[in-house]
């Protein structure tokens, strides 16, 4: 791998798990999950999402770790190398990079919002909005529609991520994830505890946990699939890069299980924290991409004096969760570019950051001054979110699943999964069956029915 730092692997198995959890747990769990779940009707969506996470997402993650640890390359290079007669496989890798570029640009925008909310919580500006939902919503709309503030915050966030990436894998990525992921969990639990005491808590909890299948359609199922992959950071080949940093003696199955379980837990907890608050503040679950930013300030302000501190802690941790995910996205593009240009890690990190911040600025402006530029009636921002989160992740995952199941030598897969015979894997055949037949078939069916 074209990595020019000395510290190009995680120091321990726990470090590898936490770095991958850092990538998986992010805005996808706390910002995107509640809003998509609210858009598609709650409980039934949650069930389908969980099924996809544990059946498809987990197996795909194992596949990506196996490819990565075996080849130590990005898919664009690893795939043509493993299939020399079919160099066209590299396009699956390139498609993953394209998806990552769009995802990261979008990620910069939301991370910028998060950073702004953190600053507002610290300065007391958030407390001044009070508990009136209408004024909190108006504030959010005015902020995202403005020109300079969102651009300033997303750029600062992007540059900080770039600096972490330049610090290398062990000091940079692993160091940050190790400390802050556990703190995030504790804070989310506190928030859930508070939300559950709110007057309409029961309504919110049953909205999330009691499935209403009449709200489920093909579009919702595709959205659940896209969200499951997005949330686990799988399907685009990014975990292939992290697989390359994994210690050789790491148990891929156990690691994958813990990452999946933590990711899922955080999403469900985010739902438990948000939906009671949505109903208690008289808002609609289908409020859209701003849901969390509209609901949470109302909750914090209603807590009284302590609310400001809870808000500061919460938005700080959301910034951190966003940071550990953003750096994994940036790392992926950065390694890919340095493989192609044979350039230093620093140069490629700089180029990738500038390019994606450029796209992010366009997406941010499409929420305000450029909102009349639309595609099929959607703003560029919504198109980017829909494209990457719903369509591109499953499409790219299909390519990776087919490559893994049908092209990669099965002995290599077995060696990597069993650590060269040290671990026994009793369900190896079932695992291969899932990846060869079930995963591609499910991806094709869900994609086709969801699109048409
Ligand atoms: N999984 C991250 C989240 O939930 C987003 C992400 C997707 C990060 C793909 C890396 C790769 O926010």
Task: Walk me through this protein's architecture.
The protein has 452 residues and is mainly α. Helices cover 76% and strands 1% of the residues. The protein contains 18 helices and 2 strands. It has helices at residues 13-24, 27-39, 43-71, 75-82, 90-123, 133-145, 148-166, 169-195, 201-209, 218-232, 238-244, 252-280, 291-302, 307-341, 345-365, 380-407, 410-417, 428-451, and strands at 374-375, 378-379. The chain has a two-stranded antiparallel sheet. A hairpin with a 2-residue loop joins strand 1 and strand 2. Helix 3 (43-71) packs across helix 16 (380-407) and helix 8 runs parallel beside helix 12 (252-280). The chain starts with 12 loop residues before the first helix and ends with a helix. The structure holds phenylalanine. Phenylalanine is lined by residues 23-24, 26-29, 103, 230-231, 233, 236, 238, 325, 328-329. Residues 23-24, 26-29, 103, 230-231, 233, 236, 238, 325, 328-329 line the site of phenylalanine.
């Amino acid at each position: 791998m074209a990595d020019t730092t000395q510290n190009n692997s995680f120091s321990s198995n726990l470090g590898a798990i936490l770095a991958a959890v850092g990538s998986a747990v992010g805005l996808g769990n706390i910002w995107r999950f509640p809003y998509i779940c609210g858009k598609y009707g709650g409980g039934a969506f949650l069930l389908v999402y969980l099924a996809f996470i544990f059946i498809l997402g987990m197996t795909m993650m194992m596949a990506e770790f196996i490819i990565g640890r075996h080849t130590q390359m990005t898919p664009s290079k690893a795939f043509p190398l493993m299939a020399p007669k079919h160099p066209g496989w590299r396009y699956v890798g390139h498609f993953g990079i394209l998806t990552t570029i769009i995802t990261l640009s979008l990620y910069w925008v939301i991370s910028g919002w998060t950073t702004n909310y953190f600053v507002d919580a610290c300065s007391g500006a958030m407390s001044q909005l009070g508990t009136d939902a209408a004024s909190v919503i108006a504030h959010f709309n005015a902020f995202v529609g403005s020109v300079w503030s969102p651009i300033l915050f997303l750029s600062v966030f992007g540059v900080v991520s770039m600096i972490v990436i330049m610090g290398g894998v062990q000091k940079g990525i692993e160091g940050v994830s190790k400390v802050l992921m556990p703190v995030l969990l504790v804070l989310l639990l506190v928030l859930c505890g508070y939300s559950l005491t709110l007057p309409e808590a029961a309504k919110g909890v049953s909205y999330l946990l009691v499935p209403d299948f009449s709200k489920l359609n093909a579009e919702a199922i595709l959205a659940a699939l896209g969200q499951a992959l997005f949330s686990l950071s799988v399907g685009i080949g990014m975990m292939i890069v992290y697989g390359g940093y994994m210690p050789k003696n790491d148990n891929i199955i156990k690691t994958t299980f813990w990452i999946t379980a933590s990711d899922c837990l955080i999403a469900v907890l985010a739902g438990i924290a948000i939906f009671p608050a949505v109903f208690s503040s008289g808002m609609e679950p289908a409020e859209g991409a701003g849901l969390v930013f509209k609901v949470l300030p109302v909750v914090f302000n209603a807590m009284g004096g302590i609310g400001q501190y809870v808000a500061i802690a919460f938005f700080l941790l959301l910034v951190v969760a966003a940071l550990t995910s953003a750096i994994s996205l940036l790392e992926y593009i950065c390694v890919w570019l340095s493989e192609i240009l044979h350039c230093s890690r620093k140069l490629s990190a700089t180029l990738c950051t500038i390019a994606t911040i450029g796209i992010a600025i366009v997406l941010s402006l499409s929420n305000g001054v450029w909102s009349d530029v639309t595609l099929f009636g959607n703003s560029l921002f919504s198109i980017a979110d829909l494209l990457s989160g719903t369509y591109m992740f499953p499409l790219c995952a299909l390519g990776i699943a087919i490559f893994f199941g049908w092209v990669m030598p099965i002995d290599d897969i077995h060696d990597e999964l069993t650590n060269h015979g040290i671990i026994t894997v009793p369900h190896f055949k079932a695992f291969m069956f899932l990846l060869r037949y079930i995963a591609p078939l499910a991806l094709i069916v869900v994609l086709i029915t969801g699109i048409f």
